[in-house]
Amino acid sequence: MNPAPNLVLIGPMGAGKTSIGKRLAARLGLAFVDCDHRLEEVTGAAVPLIFECEGEAGFRARETALIAELMRGRGQLIATGGGAVLAEANRKQLAGRGFVVHLQVSVAQQIERLGRDRSRPLLAVGDKRAKLESLAVERGPIYRDLADLAFDADGLTVAIAAERLGALLEQRWQRTEAA
Ligand SMILES: Nc1ncnc2c1ncn2[C@@H]1O[C@H](COP(=O)(O)OP(=O)(O)OP(=O)(O)O)[C@@H](O)[C@H]1O
Ligand SMILES: O=C(O)C1=C[C@@H](O)[C@@H](O)[C@H](O)C1
Ligand SMILES: [Mg+2]
């Protein structure tokens, strides 16, 4: 049990952080914030354009600043981007004031969901499967170490996953009102 004022979703691209997160926030009465979407609102540019103009380093710097700002708040469900856990500063922020849920997904399922996706610059490569596999090797242990709870939504619809995860969180997450 990690009492915390916010709920945080981490996990690989296509795990459902955005889509399950939106429904889960409504079910739990939390304000939904999607980090990628917030960065797009603030910059007025889509994620691929931010990568193009500022490089991945520029995107990561913006992501880190946003996470630090968001984690000062409470009562939020924060859907992170897939690479948000890479920076130690982000991990400290997320774990410090968040109950962290790792949404798990297989590479096969990622391919099904993201095969034709053009909004994720890291997947703008010839061999998506190889890229997703190497990211899974690199990032899997980081997601596992940071998480208070792991949830596998493979084979579940977004609605059912949100419902089941919501029920689990009612038992496992002690929501605090910490300032
Ligand atoms: N459980 C699910 N069942 C069916 N489709 C899903 C499920 N979860 C996600 N999807 C679909 O997969 C796609 C990617 O999901 P989503 O954008 O929620 O992933 P994400 O974890 O937020 O990824 P990213 O790290 O890139 O932000 C969307 O089209 C979404 O509708
Ligand atoms: O896995 C990643 O590194 C990323 C995932 C997306 O959510 C975006 O944050 C961006 O495309 C990078
Ligand atoms: Mg997302």
From TrEMBL:
Stored InterPro entries: P-loop_NTPase, Shikimate/glucono_kinase, Shikimate_kinase/TSH1, Shikimate_kinase_CS
Localization in the cell: Cytoplasm
The organism's place on the tree of life at top rank: Bacteria
GO function terms (MF aspect): ATP binding; magnesium ion binding; shikimate kinase activity
The reaction(s) this protein catalyses: shikimate + ATP = 3-phosphoshikimate + ADP + H(+)
EC nos: 2.7.1.71
Binding site for Mg(2+): 18
Cofactor note: Binds 1 Mg(2+) ion per subunit.
Keyword Isomerase: no
Keyword Glycosyltransferase: no
Pathways per UniProt: Metabolic intermediate biosynthesis; chorismate biosynthesis; chorismate from D-erythrose 4-phosphate and phosphoenolpyruvate: step 5/7
Binding residues annotated for ATP, in chain numbering: 14-19, 120
Co-factor requirement: Mg(2+)
GO cellular component terms given for this protein: cytosol
Binding site residues for substrate: 36, 60, 82, 139
GO process annotations (BP): amino acid biosynthetic process; aromatic amino acid family biosynthetic process; chorismate biosynthetic process
Keywords noted in UniProt: Amino-acid biosynthesis, Aromatic amino acid biosynthesis, ATP-binding, Cytoplasm, Kinase, Magnesium, Metal-binding, Nucleotide-binding, Transferase
Complex and partners: Monomer.
Function as written in the Swiss-Prot or TrEMBL entry: Catalyzes the specific phosphorylation of the 3-hydroxyl group of shikimic acid using ATP as a cosubstrate.
Family recorded in the similarity comment: Belongs to the shikimate kinase family.
PANTHER family in the cross-refs: SHIKIMATE KINASE (PTHR21087), SHIKIMATE KINASE 1, CHLOROPLASTIC (PTHR21087:SF16)
Protein name: Shikimate kinase
Species this chain originates from: Arenimonas metalli CF5-1
Lineage summary: Bacteria, Pseudomonadati, Pseudomonadota, Gammaproteobacteria, Lysobacterales
